[in-house]
Specification:
7 helices, seven-stranded mixed β-sheet, single chain, 7 strands, alpha/beta, Rossmann fold, 18% strand
């Protein structure tokens, strides 16, 4: 059961997602997709970890910057075994899809140095296909955090425009397979699928 939570930077989406996880389960698995590129990023990650620890909800943190589909499948198998034993399955929270996409896109850029652009693009699309399949197959509570990156100005450089476009496509795809989709703006969550326009209503 996938739930997508989207919003802009500092919109409150991570905080909302963590509170949502605490409502859905008794403990959680936090999958962090970020890579530590500099000291400022390290400080951000440490602050996030501290905030989670102080919230009073038990988290097991897993760092998974690239192999997210495989990690979800492994957790799904573990969850099935827990459920079979009558043990409550932890909520899985992925924070976030756009950082994962950044890592995949950077790897695709590296692959273009030794392969064609078409081959690198095909590899990246395969990664996105695999993630969508793994998320749709996950039968237990799964919260996916992502960013809305297309609401601002058009990036001035090609890689930035490519990232914006791929992030928009990924968000649409993950929203389509999710049971619920929340948009968080200024700390206020809105459930988008409950408000979704239906063509048949015309």
């Amino acid at each position: 059961m996938a739930i997508l939570v989207t919003g802009g930077a500092r919109s409150g989406k991570s905080s909302f997602s963590e509170k949502l996880a605490a409502r859905l389960g008794e403990q959680g698995v936090y999958i962090a997709t970020s890579r530590i590129w500099d000291e400022e990023m390290a400080e951000r990650i440490a602050l996030h970890q501290e905030n989670r620890e102080q919230a009073g909800f038990r988290w097991a943190t897993i760092e998974e910057p690239m192999e997210l589909p495989g990690r979800l499948r492994k957790l799904a198998a573990e969850a099935m075994e827990l459920a079979r034993q009558g043990i409550k399955v932890p909520v899985v929270l992925v924070d976030c899809l756009t950082l994962w996409l950044t890592n995949v896109l950077m790897e695709a850029e590296e692959r273009e140095k030794s392969a064609s652009a078409a081959e690198a693009q095909a590899w990246m699309m395969g990664q996105m296909d695999d993630l969508a399949a793994a998320a749709s197959e996950y039968a237990f509570p799964l919260i996916l955090v992502t960013n809305e990156v297309g609401d601002g100005i058009v990036p001035a450089y090609p890689l930035g425009r490519r990232f914006r476009d791929e992030a928009g496509r990924l968000n649409q795809r993950m929203a389509a397979l999710s049971d619920r989709v929340f948009l968080v703006t200024a700390g206020i969550p809105v459930e988008l699928k409950a408000l979704q326009f239906r063509w048949e209503s015309l």
